[in-house]
Design goal:
This protein is an alpha/beta fold. It is built from four helices and seven strands.
Length: 155
């Protein structure tokens, strides 16, 4: 994981708390618990799903995900791996993850999610926004070959 912040014991606690928040959301998803998933979000949160649906606020996010968990996402598990975390002031961070959803262990984490997380009350953190998209490796490879300047810096 790439953490872009100066070495600071306070930030180490923040990184641990942010990891815990994303673990709570992952565990709620994997249990099929929409209400618990929704509680990971701020009151004015935005969740842009993989298919482009926009949900707002923890109640709507939780309600909609509960319906998904009872339907075609029933029995699925969320897998995610933090690839980048950067702080933007004392109470805001952006987290990029690779992940996927399925009934078994994914062979490849084929989706990218960008989270904006904010400090809630005390030392807790909540998700203010998340945007999910599919990682299209073949298109990316072609793009890099045709336009090498589009390749991001190696981290």
């Amino acid at each position: 994981m790439n953490i872009r912040t100066p070495a600071d014991p306070t930030r180490e606690r923040d990184v641990a708390a942010i990891r815990d928040l994303l673990e709570q959301s992952r565990a709620a998803w994997s249990r099929g618990d929409g209400a618990a998933y929704g509680r990971c979000f701020t009151d004015d949160a935005t969740d842009v799903t993989y298919v482009g649906t926009v949900y707002r606020g923890p109640a709507e996010i939780g309600r909609a995900h509960q319906a998904l968990f009872a339907g075609f996402l029933k029995g699925t598990r969320l897998s995610l791996d933090i690839t980048d975390l950067s702080f933007h002031g004392p109470d805001t961070a952006v987290v990029v993850t690779r992940g996927d959803v399925g009934t078994g262990r994914p062979g490849r984490l084929g989706k990218i999610a960008t989270y904006t997380v904010v400090r809630g009350g005390g030392d807790g953190w909540l998700i203010a926004a998340v945007q999910k998209t599919r990682h299209r490796r073949l298109m990316e490879t072609v793009s890099f070959r045709l336009q090498p300047a589009t390749r991001p810096a190696v981290r």
